[in-house]
Design goal:
The complex is a heterodimer of chains A (590) and B (94).
Chain A (H helix, E strand, L loop, with lengths): L2 H22 L5 H6 L6 H12 L2 H14 L4 H25 L4 H8 L3 H34 L3 H51 L4 H4 L12 H11 L12 H17 L1 H4 L8 H37 L2 E2 L5 H9 L2 E3 L7 E2 L13 E5 L5 E3 L10 E3 L3 H9 L4 H39 L5 H24 L5 H5 L1 H8 L1 H10 L5 H25 L18 H19 L5 H10 L12
Antiparallel strand pairs in A: 1-3, 2-6, 4-5
Helix pairs in contact in A: 1-8, 1-16, 3-8, 3-13, 4-13, 4-15, 4-16, 5-11, 5-13, 6-7, 7-8, 7-16, 7-17, 7-19, 7-21, 8-13, 8-16, 8-17, 10-13, 11-19, 11-20, 11-22, 13-15, 14-15, 15-16, 16-17, 19-21, 19-22, 20-21, 20-22, 21-22
Chain B lengths: L4 H29 L1 H4 L3 E2 L2 E2 H31 L5 H10 L1
Antiparallel strand pairs in B: 1-2
Helix pairs in contact in B: 1-3
The chains are: A mainly alpha (590), B mainly alpha (94).
Chain lengths: 590, 94
């Protein structure tokens, strides 16, 4: 069987598994639909959280970004793991003790206000939709790349699968499907990483291979060789960053507290039986996540080394076939500026923008790039997203590894999409309808409304995935900044500051959200030509501005709460209660 | 029995303070602010600052959560606010 046949087989098998689990674990009540009845084992919940958390961006893009950014890729590695420490220590146990269904539930109750609840729902929907559109797009790209299905049909198939288990199974179905998806995605990530580590260093553990010597007789370690090779070609050293220290600091902080403020991650801790289980499952989740996140920098470094070795100064006619197949899809482009028939790889863009190709091929078979060349010596355009997907081909691994990577990227994208769709539908049926506009709903009607909202959300997400408004991909990364600036401070202060009240929280959330939105919108859409360190506030890029938004939120909330009436006694009693682990409401068994 | 909830909460805040200080030092301290100084030191084929940023900090994050789980379990029992009793009630159903 060839690579494509194997890919079909692996993808079909994994989808069959997910659907089977969904049918087995159908939800019968709103409690099961929203929080899986609250009876999930901490290890299972840890795996589900890890799959929920690691999206198409973690699986497909991150190692590629690290490969090309070197040290600066650190912001994603630390930012997307360090948030779990905050989550485990500052939020998860208390929110589990609170024992309701959603993040707006907590904010609405703690701040005794329907307005606060609605503001939280708006933040949640804004954050979740920007995030989910990127996942559906990821599903579409994998289908088109590996299975030769148009992106449109790829997204439709993805929507149908998510529909099966999110709408029927609710949180219960999603939880157990995500456990399976975690196993698929981590296996698919580690297998090629181990193979490549063996090829380059002879050591089967990528985390150690990253520090080991390259087995080419040079006696250099992987990172020293990368630094040396890249500086010879005119790049900055791999282990040195290009971003300013304050920007790295701000982006890492925004990603960390944004992670802790993401509704689809927080809600996972409502599904375990006890407070102590919420702590444990955050720990297990981080182990499962760290497995991928400590492998990613090794994959990135190996990929960059392999990439330079394979293409630089190679005659086009002799270059490896993966170069040509990605060129065929348009994610690699080559312009032979010095007419020597060889590929030269240097810093800078080879030509303006993404490559557009003429209909005729050049005599050597390469595609004719029409873009205006730049003055740089660099002749190669390469899309960063291809590194993980192309890695098995670059390292000439067997076909089944390629098929595995395809199934793994789909697992990553689908599991995250399902988790996001669930929090969107829950916040609509539970927070907007049941708790705000239609208080008389029965449990059955609410469950129906939740399913209807999930269907609608899938439809919108699918539309955004098939026909993304140009900004979707860019906006995905900003979901973290928005979560950091709006929800995180309100939840944290609600637990740790008893003097915090309705007025402080609402003003803080709105100010943090609006400030970050305007800053991002200004540099990304209104005036993108000024998106440069010289014009940024304190030298902080739009990616890191959530940190400043959070500081504004905290400051305003503290000042305003001290000038207005304190929270009522019943709310203070509730805060006292969530600070103590014992006496949690009893969960259902599965 | 009146539980000493204030004492429990203060002890909890002390644990959080200590663990979050370590969290900050390994990530923002070693990985970002001091990275250039630490990069002068070789560490198993890595530059030390780079290792903290892309490997070490993540391992410490995992360890911190498990230390936290352990410390809180002890604290919960000492102040009689552990949720173990709730668990026994559950096991009767399963």
């Amino acid at each position: 069987m060839d690579a494509q046949g194997l890919t079909y087989l692996f993808v079909a098998l994994s989808f069959g598994l997910y659907i089977g689990i969904a049918i087995w674990s159908r939800a019968g009540s709103t409690n099961e639909f929203y929080v899986a009845g609250g009876g999930v084992h901490p290890i299972a919940n840890g795996m589900a959280t890890a799959a929920d958390w690691m999206s198409a961006a973690s699986f497909i893009s991150m190692a590629g970004i690290i490969a090309f950014m070197g040290y600066d890729g650190t912001v994603y590695l630390m930012g997307w793991t360090g948030g779990y420490v905050i989550l485990a220590l500052l939020l998860a146990p208390y929110l589990r003790k609170f024992g309701q269904f959603t993040v707006p539930d907590f904010i609405g109750t703690r701040y005794y206000s329907t307005t606060a609840r609605v503001v939280a729902v708006i933040c949640l929907i804004l954050i979740s939709f920007t995030y989910v559109a990127g996942q559906m797009r990821g599903v579409g790209i994998v289908f088109s790349q590996f299975l030769n299905i148009p992106i449109f049909w790829g997204v439709i198939v993805g929507m149908a699968i998510v529909f099966m288990y999110a709408v029927l199974g609710g949180m219960k179905g999603i939880t157990y499907t995500q456990v399976a998806q975690y196993c698929v995605l981590i296996f698919a990530y580690l297998v090629p990483a181990i193979f490549i580590s063996m090829l380059i260093t002879g050591i089967p553990i990528p985390q150690l291979g990253l520090g080991a010597q390259v087995i080419d007789g040079s006696g250099l370690s992987v990172l020293d060789k990368l630094d040396q090779t890249l500086t010879e070609l005119g790049f900055a050293a791999y282990t040195q960053g290009a971003k300013s220290t304050i920007d790295v600091f701000a982006i890492t902080m925004a990603l960390m507290i944004g992670t802790a403020g993401l509704p689809h991650v927080i809600v996972r801790f409502f599904t375990v039986p006890k407070v102590s289980d919420a702590r444990k499952s955050a720990g297990y989740a981080l182990i499962f996540i760290a497995l991928l996140y400590t492998t990613a920098p090794a994959v990135g470094a190996f990929a960059r080394l392999n990439f330079v070795d394979t293409i630089h100064n190679t005659q086009y006619s002799d270059v490896a076939s993966w170069f040509k197949s990605w060129e065929d899809i348009g994610l690699i482009g080559w312009e032979d500026k010095n007419q020597d028939g060889r590929i030269q790889y240097h810093p800078g863009a080879p030509f303006e923008g993404k490559p557009s190709f003429g209909p005729e091929r050049r005599p050597d078979g390469s595609r004719d790039v029409l873009n205006t060349p730049t003055a740089s010596d660099n002749e190669v355009y390469v899309d960063r997203d291809i590194m993980v997907l192309a890695n098995p081909e670059i390292a000439a691994l067997p076909d089944w590894v390629i098929a595995l990577v395809a199934a793994g990227s789909l697992a990553a994208a689908l599991s995250t999409a399902a988790g996001l769709l669930l929090v969107i539908s829950t916040s609509v049926s539970h927070d907007l309808l049941k708790k705000t506009f239609a208080r008389g709903l029965t449990d059955k009607q609410e469950l129906f409304a939740a399913r209807l909202a999930a269907v609608t959300a899938i439809g919108i997400a699918g539309y955004l995935g098939i026909d993304p408004p140009g900004f979707v991909a860019q906006v995905v990364a900003f979901a973290f900044g928005l979560a950091a600036a709006s929800l995180f401070p309100a939840i944290l202060l609600g637990i740790f500051d008893k003097r915090m009240n309705r007025e402080g929280a609402i003003v803080g959330m709105l100010a943090g959200l609006i400030f970050s939105l305007i800053y991002i919108a200004y540099f990304k859409f209104v005036s993108p030509e000024t998106n440069h360190a010289d014009y940024w506030l304190f030298g902080i890029s739009p990616e890191g501005i959530g940190t400043v938004g959070a500081v504004i939120n905290f400051t305003l909330a503290m000042v305003i709460s001290r000038c207005t009436a304190p929270a009522p006694v019943s709310v203070l009693a509730m805060v006292d209660n969530i600070r103590i682990p014992s006496g949690v409401n009893r969960p259902q068994d599965h | 029995m009146k539980q000493d909830t204030q004492g429990y909460w203060k002890a909890n805040l002390r644990i959080l303070g200590a663990l979050l200080s370590i969290w900050f030092i390994v990530s923002f301290g070693f990985g970002i602010l001091l990275v250039d100084e630490l990069n002068q030191i070789p560490f198993f084929g890595f530059k030390l600052g780079f290792w903290w940023a892309q490997q070490g900090a993540i391992y410490v994050f995992v360890a911190l959560i498990f230390v936290y789980i352990h410390l809180m379990q002890k604290l919960d029992r000492r102040y009689g606010v552990s949720d173990d009793d709730d668990a026994e009630a559950n096991q009767e159903d399963s």
